[in-house]
Amino acid sequence: MADPLTASNLRALILRTVDALSSQDLILLSKIRGVDLKSRNSSRQTVLHLALEHDLIELVEYFLENGANPNAADYNGETPLLTAAKSRQAKRLLPLVMRYGANPTARNVDGWNALHYLIRIWTSQIDGHVDLVKTLIAKGVLIDDRENDTKQQPIHVAVQYRKLELVKLLLDKGANIDAQAENGNFPLYFAAVGGGSPILLKTLLERGANVDMRNNGGQTALHAACEKRLADSNRQCIKLLLDAGADLFAEDNKGNTAVALVNQNLRGWIYWNGYLNSDIALMVKATALKKISLPPSTVMKDEGVLREHPKIWEFYQNCIRCAAMTRDMIIIKNCSLYDLLTTCHCRIAKLMRHQDFETRFERYNLKDFSMYGNDIRIAFERAKHYHDSMLQQEDDINEAAYYTLPDLIVRNLVRCIFDCGIRKCTLRQQ
């Protein structure tokens, strides 16, 4: 009689290039020859590990039905559940092994739990296995388990693998949005680095990520967005971070500001088809806005960087002149065009209650402010959208309360529940 199937000879049968055997073939062979469910190969894998590793779903179920240990760990501490979690058939295999008693909270010798594996799986599905992640969390898998070497929690992995829906789910379940991994890196940093993901960055900022958080090298998310040659996604990330109040002049441990990093990484790429690179233009304009808020004698470190490029320096000087003009253009008391450019839109929205605000704004020809005209228009529209949404929210509250609440109370209620999405906004901290 032929020897029974073991962990040592099963892999050879699975990997046959001629007359490859299906799950049904292997099940039949197991019935004829028998199978040693406790056998181990040189990596201490069982036959169950091997069947899972090769996505042989029916064979997995056959082994489990016949008593295979669903919690046997291999040399690396990987249990059948963890093997299932890294399979492209995870949606079928994970529920199957858990049905037969697999411990959902198992971790390998490197500290990885099922979430660390599952999030890394490539999937064309937009949900990125959201339902499976929900199930695992419900069964006790911890969202703050860290990998031993990288110190990464599932939230770090989800951001790096650009799994937006999983990031949202993990945050909903209480993941620490500012958790630091190896080298002090944090989710917002990972969202900005290596080309960046604007949609992930926006989500994290809206959920309250600390825009000025630093890693062990002193770098912020803005530094990360400026470290490599910039693509369109970087530009969007830079703008999102600046809009959220990121400190353009924060220095890392090497003394580099974001502007200095752009200068280092874009040498030879300052101009594109004869025009100033728009990423640099964005940061130069922000530098000019900061400059005119300081005493005239103040010299900023980044001005030394800008002076290295005569055309950029000329552009910077033009921006300063244009920015100074906006400061003199008053819309209403305590609000100029400069304030529109530099103040959180939720604060501007509050000022828009003035009955003449919009009329007075429209009297200015924004073409006169060539460097900032489009930015002013965008800032106005953003604040107006926020203002209109606030008024609608107030109407809804008044209707629900049968118009019995004083206006001041209604406005304070709206202010408390209506989030502008910018963590540094001083109005949110009042």
From TrEMBL:
The keyword Translocase does not apply. InterPro entries: Ankyrin_rpt, Ankyrin_rpt-contain_sf. Keywords: ANK repeat, Repeat. SMART domains: ANK. ANK repeats lie at residues 43-75, 76-109, 150-182, 183-216, 217-253. The keyword Repeat applies. PROSITE patterns: ANK_REP_REGION, ANK_REPEAT. Signal peptide: none annotated. It comes from the Eukaryota. It holds the Pfam family Ank_5. PANTHER family: ANKYRIN REPEAT CONTAINING (PTHR24173), ANKYRIN REPEAT DOMAIN-CONTAINING PROTEIN 16 (PTHR24173:SF74). This is Uncharacterized protein.
